[in-house]
Design brief:
By secondary structure, this protein is of the alpha+beta class. It has four helices and 14 strands. The two termini are 39 Å apart.
Length: 288
């Protein structure tokens, strides 16, 4: 079964359950199959995955050869333009995003956990995942910005259903609010960066694309919800960090990855869409 237990150290985050990969009779995939049935079929699916990788590698080699042996373009011809409105300057995007991303650290009498977050506004509000701070009762929460300064944080509110939480710290010029993307302008295939502190490595940036929008998945609980799917590498500690586009705008909040039988990242990650995260954060701030 493809299951992930979130991205934020301990406590572990919400389980992701695939919407259905196989069916009992080989027909239309079932939206919810018993765990043992999926588990028994995984070796076969894993083998199929290896075949796909091998075929893809072979195809890539052939494609490279054909491209390399293709005739030179005619003199004066122009390369096809990049899609309008989709910049490719990920270096610039990283430079814009990093000052607004923080490492979130939770300390309790029995241990703690860590994750990531990003600056939501100029009043010191930080958005992260609920599962990053869910164990903070009776403990302390702090954030470390890109300048290395540690600030004590207050938990303003949490929403387990969307896996969003809001923290508040003393506003600082070093904590720069990130711009939020227009969801209607986000496109499948556009480049994105996952920014955060995987495995405690603060200020880490990984690149990929938006693999799918409005992916129906279960992120904890039993109700399905839509998520942004990406192949940008995200790992434990990335929870709550932003998924940003090439303009440095937040398109989602990284929250879960799919794994095979408890393994690591396999290049399928999920983020809470920014329109939902923004609405939940604004509601939590209003209540707090």
């Amino acid at each position: 079964m493809t299951i992930t237990t979130g991205l934020g150290g301990e406590p572990r985050g919400p389980d992701f359950v695939s919407p259905g990969l196989v069916s009992p009779a080989g027909g239309v995939p079932s939206p919810a199959l018993p765990g043992p049935a999926l588990t028994r079929r995984w070796p076969m699916l894993a083998a199929a995955g290896l075949v796909v990788v091998a075929v893809s590698a072979g195809t890539g080699g052939a494609a490279g050869y054909l491209a390399g042996s293709a005739p030179e373009p005619a003199a004066g011809s122009q390369p096809a333009p990049a899609p309008a409105g989709v910049p490719s300057d990920l270096v610039g995007a990283a430079a814009r995003a990093l000052p607004g991303v923080v490492s979130v650290q939770v300390r309790t009498g029995s241990g703690g956990g860590s994750g990531s977050g990003f600056v939501f506004d100029d009043r010191g509000h930080i958005v992260t995942n609920n599962h990053v701070v869910t164990s903070a009762a009776g403990g302390s929460v702090s954030v470390v910005g890109s300048d290395g300064r540690r600030l004590t944080a207050e938990v303003v509110g949490t929403d387990p259903g969307s896996d969003i939480a809001v923290l508040r710290v003393t506003p600082s010029a070093a904590l720069r609010p990130l711009d939020l993307a227009d969801r209607t302008a986000t496109r499948v295939g556009e480049p994105v960066l996952a920014v955060g502190s995987p495995l405690g490595l603060s200020g880490t940036v990984t690149a990929g694309i938006i693999s799918a929008l409005d992916r129906q998945v279960r992120l904890g609980g039993t109700a399905r919800q839509t998520a942004v799917q990406t192949d940008a590498s995200i790992n434990p500690g990335n929870s709550g960090g932003p998924l940003v586009n090439a303009r440095g705008e937040v398109v989602g909040v990284n929250t879960a990855i799919a794994t095979l039988e408890g393994g690591g990242s396999i290049g399928i990650g999920f983020a809470v869409p920014i329109d939902r995260a923004r609405q939940v954060a604004a509601t939590l701030i209003g209540r707090g």
